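To the structural biology subgroup,

Please find below the input and predicted structure for Nucleotidyltransferase family protein, which we are adding to the shared reference set this quarter. The sequence is reproduced verbatim from the submission form. If anyone notices a discrepancy with their own records, reply to this email rather than editing the shared folder directly, so we keep one authoritative version.
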Amino acid sequence: MTMKTSKKVNEYRADPEVAVAYFRRTVPFDQLDEELLRRLARHCKLDFYPKGTRILVMGESEVNYLYLIQRGAVSKFIVDPQGTVSLKDVRGEGQFFGALGIIQRSRANVDVEAVEDTFCLLLPKEQFLWLLENQPQFAAYYLKDISDQLVNTAYSELRQHKLKRRTSEDLLLFSNTVGDIVGRAAVSVDQDLTIQSAAALMAQQRIGSLLVHVPARPEEIVGIITDRDLRSKVVAAGLDYQQPVSRIMSSPVQKVLSQTLCFDVLLAMLSRGIHHLAVEQGGRIVGVVTSNDIMSLQGNSPYYLFKEIVNQDRISGLYPLAQKIPDVIRSLLKEGGKASHITRMIAIINDHILTRLLTLLEAELGSPPVPYCWLLLGSEGRREQTFKTDQDNALLYADPRDQRQHTEAVRYFTELADKAADHLANCGYPPCPGEIMARNPRWRQPYSVWQGYFASWVCEPNPQELLNATIFFDFKPGFGEVKLAEELRDYLVEKTRRQDIFLLHLARQALTARAPLSFFRNFIVEKDGEYKNRLDIKHKGIASYADFARIFSLKHGIKETNTLARFKVLADEGYLDRQLAKAAEASYELMMQLRLLHQLEQLEQGILPDNHIDPADLTDLERRMLKESFRVLERLQAILETNYPAS
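Predicted structure (tokenized):
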């Protein structure tokens, strides 16, 4: 596919009322006063980027605007010297990109590409920098976000850095001071020492920087030199190695107090565009901290885990890597990540595990006799997994051309599915209790058989079969020949959109799970048993939202499988009131967030995660919001009843 490059920004202003309306509903602009919002709106432009447009190119593009995504989505990624692409982030409506480049006064630090047709509101960098300087809360929001991004000039160093697994408490950026992580005493040299001698000392000590003091007074630090200075100021410039270090040192030395939180140190580095800070304690410098030291605290970063998975050459080596996923998600969740971002991240990591596993299995078993696609089902297909993830999968392969190829396909895919199931179990993905897995021969079939399955479910719906069949309607390709899955999706969409009887069965089944609110709007909880006084937030809430979105998507021929994406498309295409869709998205997000937090707490207590929350454990605000979410669900279920009334 030919990559489209970004065109020049259109030279027309955004409608100020449109811009102000966007600001009012978007964090952190919604905290600014109306007059300031209107002033900002007068400076904004609007631009459109078709799907596939490369908006920013790492190291090349000037970043003159803060890009505020009004509609659509972009992916942010980096490409290493070997050409390997690492997905760094995906951002959608209400989010932004370009902040780090503006703050660092640098060119784009990542590649940014539109993954959907995307409209962006463009805020000039001058206005953005003014806000950072004059609106402290506004500045804190953006600086916290970019603190999670790797400093552009540290990318190459971090690619070579082997991160050690941390067993201490997560969120070290917020719980550790910089004094806690200074590993060794600072090394200082006389300012008259030659550059060559200083370089030799750095090599001998295996350090990346030296402090510089005045002659005979080591306590009086006047500068710092780094390995970067040696490369850029000496080697690249052809400077005489016998010159004193005072010629290339940076002065004065920028310092930070030892009791400063690592998070604040990282913010200082980002905002000042530096990578070394002297650490001061009791009036004297006790060490030097680098951006690499700070980023190493994010040992549970998805970036590192991705690299480890991709570079793994043994299937058994994937086992411990998969066990790191809860640690990664724990950090993201505790840092305030939205549920939709967390579940997307879980899905991406799981996809990496699966892709590497099946790639290594193919190398072991040889090439498959016919093309195939490993299908992800249920929450995996919707990309809505949480800490509790079973194996829900199936295997679709091309119809064999003769009996011999059929026999080979059965043998090959039986062995592939059996081994994959065992390896996935060893990675921490337990088998599906209902045997909805590729190792079950029923769910390991050629394309024509899968067509028959869907035709049977849609045209002659059996209530018992529907309990399992709904899981399959959310399938997505996980590995292999994606075209097979896409063709099967097209077949399903065409088959279901005019089958009102089938959709009626789905709707009546979905309506058996009512919103758990009493006549007096109190929560209806379990009366006894293991989960007494608890509420099954998955089956009483989350699943019902997913059911509604699935039914109406099938009704209107929408191919999306993710629940939030389905609500958005339903609203965009006029099939669902936009305000109700927005309320549904927010309510679904809240329930997923509560579920994730509940499961995180259980994991930290050594308890197997479940979906049963105790309303008494929620704050008053959370209880009110959850009740409102169930009221929104009642509105959706009323629409279902209107469209599919009981006979």
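Summary notes: Residues 302-496 form a domain with the Beta Polymerase; domain 2 fold (CATH 3.30.460). The first helix runs from residue 16 to 24.

Regards,
Lab coordination
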